[in-house]
Prior knowledge:
The structure is a single chain. It is built from 14 helices and no strands. The protein is mainly alpha-helical. It is flat and about 55 Å long. Mean pLDDT is 90; it is low at 1-20.
Amino acid sequence: MSDVASREYDLTPSEPRALDMPSPASVADYVALLKPRVMSLVIFTALVGLVRAPGEVHPVIAFTALLCIAIGAGASGALNMWWDADIDAVMSRTRRRPIPAGRVTPGEALAFGMTLSVGSVIVLGLLVNMVAAALLAFTIFFYVVIYTMWLKRWTPQNIVIGGAAGAFPPMVGWAAASGGIGLESLLLFLIIFFWTPPHFWALALYKSGDYARAGVPMLPVVAGPSETRRQILLYTLLLVPLAMSPFFLGMAGLAYGVVSGVTGALMLLLAVQVYRRREGAPAEIAARRLFGFSILYLFLLFAVLLVEAVAPAGFGL
């Protein structure tokens, strides 16, 4: 592992500042610590799990659940940035984050993340139910401790195993509405779990230099681009039929079957292009296209599941 992983890093690009001095942080910096783009995906997938769960849930309870899940996700992001500030400081896409840029101290980020973590779990348990709270607590623990502190710097399979953290929100939403864990929520978990490797490995292909400098053993750095392309294709081959299975199992309607089939074919086509294009600009373009489309792919799958749940009559179901 590189010297970056030693956790000795300069907090500011200009002049040092004592860790116990107040930082010049703004509200925007604390919002950035929450990783709002990731948080938005968490809220959306949790909403789908909540809406598709059996039974009815009071709108106030549903709002409370989603708010707690959102805060828990943001807390995980803040704790991730606290631990990974040394890595973030040397990667081009993360060096402007609040901690490596010197706008927020590590201690402030740690206190912020821990406060939100504990608060979100307690409120969810008291106002919604203990099953959802336990799942949220485990999700935060898994992302911060298992993935961020352990897997990310230890194994090229970090994204595969760590991807479970991002796959839990639909289960938390389902538990918030039903008080339990259903087969469909497990299926939603698996869709996100198998979506994560091709999504992030596509990014890692054209950001491999960043990960190498940071000492993060991402698959392209450890196993090389060729093996990464092969793994992307294999996971996509598993993902596409898995994503269509809610339709074939009778858990989703015809609209979902059509959308999952068409977008799955496009996802597979882009994965094949990544596999075949090995050199220069065409290879990078193919990886960028797959990364970008993978976000749309997951969004469309869950969007149709949501619409089918709230307006089934509009689909003739």
